[in-house]
Amino acid sequence: MKNLPLDLSESLRKRYLTVRNNGLANVFKVQDEIISSIRAFLKNEGFTEILAPIIGPVTDPGIRGAKQVTIDYYGVPFKVMSSMILYKQMIITALPKVFALSPNIRLEPLETVKTRRHLTEFRQIDLEVAYATCDEVIDLGERMLCQVIADVKAKCCKELGERCKTLTVPKRPFKRYTYKEALEILENMGMKVNYGEEIPWEAEEALSKAHMEPFWITNYPATARSFYYMESEESPGVLKDFDLVYPEGFGEAISGGEREYRYERLVERMRRGGEDPSQYGWYLDMLKAGIPPSAGFGIGVERLTRFICGLENIWDAVPFPKVAGIPSP
Ligand code: ASN
What sign has the CA pseudo-torsion 58, 272, 228, 255? Predict the structure, then answer.
């Protein structure tokens, strides 16, 4: 890991000066095209864009060591959304294909500054499809990423500069590894990860560096992920879920999967994962009332921008960056 610039805190706190750097204006123009391209792609696929929630009684607990933010909502503790996953399961009862540009807050541990790909305030394009399988949304994710890269190359080559030459539209289908296979590759690279744990950031970055095209890691163990991913019937303890990892060291792009939608199974998963079901009032009431199965994913907008623009640091992929521990505007 390279050393961070000593003046990172200073330069983020003085964003009103550093935001004028020429390079950043180009990044934000590319970002504008990325968002337009995704919207056009998803509308063409029959998706409806909805407005994302910002606060609510509960939010996504599966945020890898980050802390949730709680606010006082008229005497009731409310969470600021860490992801809108629970709400996606609600809205697909009304609309079968939805997406939102969803703002999320996660108070990441201080050491995430060093990964150069963590922000405490970020946005994801979060989508969900009723009755879909993992394979279907994986296929959608591949086509979406290829379309966005093609559109950006066609429309923003000037803003991309040198990166326009090295950025290529990936070949489909992307490579797929199971979590177990990813652990074997890592072991051969001299990085041991114990089965059942989340793949640490450094290991994921090393795996990403060893690839020149994006690739999927599927079927994480239930112990590493949250209760809302569907467990495989054939291999209990293994999830029907996936991450997409960018190549060239850029790391995680997408997380998603098929959802557990059956009340009893979900409560059992919560208990196994150490979650207190009584904290999930409306969500469990909704499952009791009945919702359809679904699958979906979220793709981080700033990370996609970082990858497409070939940026070293995620804080250059957002106008008003919030990085762990730095109280910037
Ligand atoms: N957006 C992800 C999903 O759809 C969840 C997350 O952000 N943790 O599964």
Answer: positive
Residue 83 alpha carbon to ligand 1 centre in Å? 6
CB 275 within 8 Å of CB 61 = yes
- Delimit the domains of the chain by residue range: 6-316
Note the pTM of the prediction, 2 decimals.
0.97
CA 176 vs CA 213, 229, 245: distances in Å: 11, 19, 10
Q: C-alpha angle 225/229/233, rounded to 5°?
A: 110
Supply 282's token pair: 């409306």
Pairwise CA distance, residues 282 & 221, whole Å: 27
Count, residues in the chain: 329
Could you tell me which of 81, 84, 77, 56 has the C-alpha nearest to residue 68? Answer: 81
Which residues, including other chains, have CB under 8 Å from residue 37's CB and lie 6 or more apart? 147, 148, 151, 152
- Residue 163 CA to residue 165 CA, distance in Å, equals 5
Tokens of 253: 């792009």
Give the span between the Cα atoms of 100 and 127, in whole angstroms. Answer: 7
Nearest one of 31, 229, 254 to 144, comparing CA atoms: 254
Beta strands at 294-300 and 251-258: parallel, antiparallel or unpaired: antiparallel
- Per CATH, the architecture of 6-316 is what? 2-Layer Sandwich (3.30)
CB count within 10 Å of CB 288 equals: 12
Segment 141-154, tens digit of pLDDT: 999 999 999 999 99
Residue with tokens 């909704």: 286
Q: How far is the CA of 124 from the centre of ligand 1 (A)?
A: 9
Q: What are residue 97's DSSP bridge partners?
A: 129
Ligand 1: which atom is nearest the Cα of residue 298? 1
In tens, the pLDDT along 67-102 reads 999 999 999 999 999 999 999 999 999 999 999 999
* C-alpha 85 to ligand 1 mean position (Å): 6
Q: Which atom number of ligand 1 is nearest to the Cα of residue 84?
A: 1
DSSP state of 234: S
